[in-house]
Amino acid sequence: MQFDDDAQLDPSQVEDVRASGPQPGRGGMPGGCSLPIGGRGGCGGCLLLILAVAALFLFGIVPSPFSGQGPQERGPQEGGQQPPAPTTAAPTGNLAARCRTGADAEQSEDCRIVGTVNSIQTYWRQAFQERGKTYTPAKTVLFSNAVNTGCGTADAAVGPFYCPADRKVYLDLSFFNTLQRNFGAEGGPFAQAYVVAHEYGHHVQNLLGTMNRVGPNSRPGAESPSVRLELQADCYAGVWAHNAVKTGFYREPFSQADIDQALSAASAVGDDSIQRRTQGRVTPDAFTHGTSQQREKWFTVGYDSGDPKRCDTFSGGI
Length: 318
Hints:
This protein has 318 residues and is α/β, with parallel strands linked by helices.
């Protein structure tokens, strides 16, 4: 995965709110657990609970409001500790100064995220244009610990997510370490790119109205609309990967080693894989994102075809 050194980055597509400092507010995990999924904090015994809760959201869409309940106020945690406070928007001047070209993306994780977002949105703008539609860009928000969103207050334990209410992707970069350490993924730059591309797949679904197929009363399950929506986002991520070099941000097509990183990440966060890690058994009736095999399959369908039309996960079996 090599960026074109001369590619011009647009850091305005990414908001960095990590340096905002503590802000008034409450957040955190249910049951009085403050430890983010990245492993920071003083509640190590809650890790399995966090992984189980995160399994509901990983690489996902957070409805507006969260879980149909809206932003939640939670009391002090056990031991008198407050959960991490959400961050609020801050200027992106630092990214603007550091992330100017593809060469910067080769040297910095932050700039790599900027370049990835730029490439993904360039592709979807072109794809929408070819079909006589207009693509509306969505910003990615980099945060630490917790963040206020149009869908409510979220902490890092939910993993990367897309909020349809404010049309933004939210990402705590510590998640990528957790993906390797706690979920067994291979990791690497293209694993990160896959995650970001999956979230923008949800943005595409929002713009096209596909999200309406998952109603507020939809139930989880192996063939549920939620699973079909998530697998389509995986397919859209593969479609972008197939076309990424055409966006002008990468020097050459992705290697098989790059694609293997994406497949490893997809497999690590399959519903069956996470359930085995968190509860020791697989419960298909609780699936929300699809199995490891399904996630790999649909990313591959998108990557091999490069055609969004091939990503119809709502017809027939999955």
